[in-house]
Fold this protein.
Amino acid sequence: MLKPKTDKRLSKDELVELNRTYVFYSWSIQEQVDPISIVSGKGITFWDHDGKQYMDFSAQLMNLNIGYQHPKVIAAIQEQAAKLCAAHPNMAHEPKALLGEMIAEITPGDLNKVFYTLGGAEANENAIKFARLFTGRQKILARYISYHGATYGAITLSGDYRRLPVEPGIPGVIHVFDPYCYRCAFGHTFETCHRECVTHIEKVIEYEGPKAIAALLMEGVTGSNGILVPPDDYWPRLREITQKYDILLISDEVMSGFGRTGAWFAVNHWDVIPDIMTIAKGLTSGYLPLGAVVVSDAIASYFDTRMLYMGLTYFGHPMSCAAAIATLKVYSEENLIENSTNMGIVLGEGLEEIKQKHTIVGDVRYIGLFSVIELVKDRETKEPLQAGLMSEIKSNLLAEGLTTFVNKNMIFICPPLCINQEELSIGLQIIDRTVGRVESLT
Ligand SMILES: Cc1ncc(COP(=O)(O)O)c(C=O)c1O
């Protein structure tokens, strides 16, 4: 009979070893991985196998927005499991329909029809299929400092280092520069900026041929590559340009959506209505896998009389949709979007103080509870802080009981949206102490 080799509780070392032997770790050199063995959680806190407690300042990977083990979402999953665990993708069922209606309500403008996926990458894959089928054009513009998922199309859209080993990827993707004001690709400062990050996109459109371009796809606010909050006129101007050339605008809100930035979706900050939005992560807060492409009425009605060449076995999975309905209710009942705005103000002030205190802090960027500290060797040259010192930061934070995403020379601070002021200030003190300790080593 097939069953796990042991039903005894594994020790931490046994568990890690078993994982290492049989399961890959993503984006890692396998021998170098030193995982935390997570066992349980509550609110913004989780515990490992040895009972050590951690504050989670990256909401797992910026998806666990409502916090760990919310009883209402657990109950909704249990209820749905007792009723119906699986359904053919084309069957009509309540969770799928009710959730679709809720998503149409919270997404801006006429983004009213949903194509479900299992996560963010699949959402972006299908978003570009929508764009290509609807426009009959092939080219997609995306940005360099971006991440849109690991599947072939999504990684081709992504501009970051993870694209290079799997090139050439899919044809027809062209990258443009980003609104990275701290390290402007055009060499400008706030004083000299003419929004070259916008105007050059129009040039690229002209050179690539507007009639060949299906869409411009961008993260609402760049996430894992450094919380690049664009200037206020950035999204509105790109909306204007895409309308001028009749190109679709796609907002990837996989990470920046569901209150992360203090609004349901990042584009809400600038009153922009894209033609297509992709969502995942915070949709279920990571409790079960689910993503979606949400499209405008014009795109939706195009497929009323034409074949939709898309499908997934787990489309509109009843369990995931039930979890998402319960999650969306939690956002609303517990005012988590407002809390993200309010705690975001406290967070921003805390980050500015940390920047004042420590010369190795080059820049801090924040919007809602989506923020980053960028560390440098030297404020003048902006040379990134050495990798060895960044590892030191990571292990110091862990030793103090705080986990977060540390990428290149950046510490991300993106806790669950249910965080309160006391928890936030404890976490910021830990980060402040750690940055100070590492600064003294430079
Ligand atoms: C902006 C963005 N888009 C897409 C994805 C891919 O989502 P998934 O890992 O669910 O495929 C991510 C993942 O981090 C993301 O941050």
User: Anything to note?
Assistant: The first strand starts at residue 38 and ends at 42. The chain has a mean pLDDT of 97.
